[in-house]
Amino acid sequence: MSAIASYTFGFGILFGGVMGYVSKGSVPSLMAGGGCGGLLVVFEYYVRRHPEFKSALTLTQAGVSFAVAAFMLSSYLKSHAPRPLYIGATSLVASLCYISRAFDGKGIPSPLKRD
Question: Which pTM does this prediction carry?
Fold first, then answer.
């Protein structure tokens, strides 16, 4: 996943959390969306600044993205509204892209291994 796609996804999740709070007064939406989106953006910033920790940070991004996917897909199962399904599917694809970027064709990542 490129940096532009990762920043766009992170800011999109962040924006969605803020909009959930503004439109419906949902504090959990603000905390989850704002927190997860903020983490995705901050981790992407550090991936770009500290490439030696790329694998660990990218796997953490995959975990955050997978958590968003799980939450949104469970929300879809309760409400059958299309928006949680779209966000959950996008988050699931993003988490797979993060995993692919973390392994980068070199096996199991290790932030302690020096080349």
Answer: 0.82
